[in-house]
Amino acid sequence: MAAASAAAVLLTLSAFIALPASADEASPIGKWRTFDPDTGAPKTVVEITETGGTLTGTVVELLDEGETTCSQCEGDRKDQPLVGMAILWNLTKDGDEWSGGTILRPANGKTANASIELAEGGNKLEVTGSKGFMSRSQTWERVE
């Protein structure tokens, strides 16, 4: 009887220990594979980090042989390397999504209002950029 009770306690404890691992999947923090919106080909790896309740997404790897600098950008980003560049910033938690931020599309140097929401158990990230009445969404995939 004591062995059965001990096994039940261990099983219960192991369930609690496993919770933090699954909690990470409920967070957009981590690395994400992006795709070219026109061809669907893998484009970059973006790492999303959180500082002070605000998310930032920075390009950490290029996956194609296209542009390596932001030639279409203006201001401080003009002709700067894409690797190391923040392309998503100032997102704050709003219910099940993060919103109120800005996203940069390096291909044309344009920015838009940004929101993101986890999908498929945290394995996908729905990224939406909007300006006025127009919006465009893209799905990013989590990189293990």
Q: How does the helix and strand content classify structurally? A: alpha+beta
Uncertain runs = 1-23
The helix/strand series, from N terminus to C terminus, equals: HEEEEEEEE
User: Using only CA atoms, what is the Rg?
Assistant: 19 Å
Q: Would you tell me the overall average pLDDT?
A: 86
Order the strands across the largest sheet as they lie in space. 1-2-3-4-5-6-7-8
Counting H and I runs of at least 4 residues, what is the number of helices? 1
- Terminal-residue CA separation: 42 Å
How much of the sequence lies in strands comes to: over 45%
Can you count the beta strands? Answer: 8
Helix coverage percent: 10-25%
The largest sheet is: 8 strands, antiparallel, barrel
Choose one word for the global shape.
globular
How would you explain this protein's 3D organization?
A hairpin with a 4-residue loop joins strand 5 and strand 6. An eight-stranded antiparallel β-barrel has the order 1-2-3-4-5-6-7-8. Helix content is 16%, strand content 49%. By secondary structure, it is of the alpha+beta class. The protein contains one helix and eight strands. The longest helix is centred in the first third of the chain and has 23 residues.
